[in-house]
Amino acid sequence: MTIPEEIEQLKIKLQKTVDERDQAEILVEILRKHISVNSTDTQPHIEYLLQLAEKLNEPLYHAWGHQHLATLQRNKGEFETSLTSDGKALRLFEQIKSKQGIASSYNNIGLTYEQQGDYPEALKNYFISLKLRKETEDKLSVAASYNNIGNIYKRQGNFPEALKNHFASVKLRKEIGNTGGIADSYTNIGIVYKIQGNFEESLKNHFTSLKLSEEIGNKRSIAASYINIGGTYEAQGNYTEALENIFKALHIFQAIDHKLGVARSYSNIALIYYRQQNYTEALKYYFDSLALSEQIGDNPGISIFHNNIGNVYSKLGNYPEAFNHQLLALNKAAAIGYKEIIKESSLSLTSIYKAAGDFENALKYYENYHQVESEMIGEKAKGQLTHLNFHHNMEQKEKDLEIEQLRNVELKKERDRSENLLLNILPAEVAEELKAKGTADAKLFNDVTVLFTDFTDFTIISEKLSPQQLVDELHDCFSAFDKICEKYSIEKIKTVGDAYLAVSGLPLANPNHAGDMVNAALEINQFIAKRIKERESKALSFGEGLGEVRIGIHSGSVVAGIVGIKKFAYDIWGDTVNTAARMEQNSEAGKINISQTTYELLNRNSTSLRSGISPFTFEYRGEIEAKNKGKLKMYFVN
Fold this sequence. Notes:
Elements: H1 3-16, H2 20-36, H3 43-56, H4 59-75, H5 79-95, H6 99-116, H7 119-136, H8 139-155, H9 159-176, H10 179-195, H11 199-216, H12 219-236, H13 239-255, H14 259-275, H15 279-296, H16 299-316, H17 319-336, H18 339-355, H19 359-377, H20 379-385, H21 390-400, H22 407-425, H23 428-437, E1 443-455, H24 458-464, H25 467-487, E2 491-496, E3 499-504, H26 513-537, E4 549-563, E5 569-573, H27 575-585, E6 592-595, H28 596-604, E7 618-626, E8 630-637
Helix pairs in contact: 1-2, 2-3, 2-4, 3-4, 4-5, 4-6, 5-6, 6-7, 6-8, 7-8, 8-9, 8-10, 9-10, 10-11, 10-12, 11-12, 12-13, 12-14, 13-14, 14-15, 14-16, 15-16, 16-17, 16-18, 17-18, 18-19, 21-22, 25-26
């Protein structure tokens, strides 16, 4: 029996039941089932439940009534009234000491903040809900909390943590046979894989979710699956399949009056028309998305759609309209702290001012872009650090719940969890210093290998690319470098312009730091060579992409530590860093230039040998003059 069929059975039972308390229980169950299918057709049942609660003088029914009302309001995009209703439900649940109800209220409050784009506040409420749900041993609810936390980590770009939480959710939901929840988790896993560019896994998970949602008749989830399948096809460039699936989603969202879903469908349709250079249709659907987002108070959506409209007007050469919408997008994004749109709008405004010959303002917005980009580097750590204050936030709640006798035990658990989280962000000794005195001293690492890369002819190429093209090229290349470094447990330190700095052998010692770094450098060269070859095969000109990389590597000792007092930045210093930079400066396009020290390490390190033979080949270049270093022995490595 599907959930809609179960709801109909409960409605028949309600009509036949005379006892008002029994009616209230049936209403609570009907509304709970409605939540499973995200129905907005619940207003009469909610009103009747609240009437019965008043008549029976029963706080529990009042609490559930207000909570279901909050869900209805949130589904309609009425976020402020939803928070008010959830607040009423929370106070009632606290009054009757219902831990399950309290946990549910915190979870719903988190959902509302998430839809408003306030991710730190959403994460805080989700963690509170997760803790309470674990205490009640309610696997269904714990799984929902893992799912919601995974969504926040996904939005913050912390994909390993996102997948970890979503797979934990799937595991629990399979244990209890929660088909709708399993479908929801597969949807979120598919979204993460799409962001990572793994389209095959993305489609596999979305189609699994669609099949499960169809089995239980969950219309909203069916629509969500269609829109996600369409989005994945769009990312692959299959616009026909993309439009077909997204229009299916649109029709379902319209049928169930899910305005947020309708707005997102319009937006996805507009994006495909934009990709096809059908700018008239793209504008039409983007304006429809914007109107709906303004109607329901979807602030992230408003900023996104102004930005998208501005981009379309730029393509049409209508710079006054493009400027107006990008400025609206920037202001709205700044008001809600939506850094991704702040970045995109700043870049777009840079291009607009540059086209108008106003280089002073172009530089101003370009600098704003770089400032926000730097802030976002630490966004993942900041999102995780929100959890560090969790045990403090729980103290007062535990007092209110009259479980004072358990407080010290619970606080210790939370402190342990907070410490473990900090250890995931910084090396153990640095974390201990930070906790003890609020600062951390730098540390010497004797055996590491440092890599520098930059792009040849970067100045010439950057003059031929628009700011957006330039940033897109750097983003694609550096993202690939990041993945390669992660494969070899190499620590990326930072990027400066077109330069990329990384180090192998810290914070954890690695006896094969030189070999791992050279292997990573070889893969970086292969990636760039393949990228250039693909561009040439499409007959693209030199000015449409970045050129080859020049790579330099040196081994030795460095000092590493935290820079700054507001946003932690792990950095390295020392002569080894300077020498690695000289190796890069004296390298050549498509070549890896290593120092004598690294050469000797590669030849004597047993873990770099295959049957006693070095896996690398070397070309001795002789002694070459290096700026401020004199003559240094250098080798090309293959």
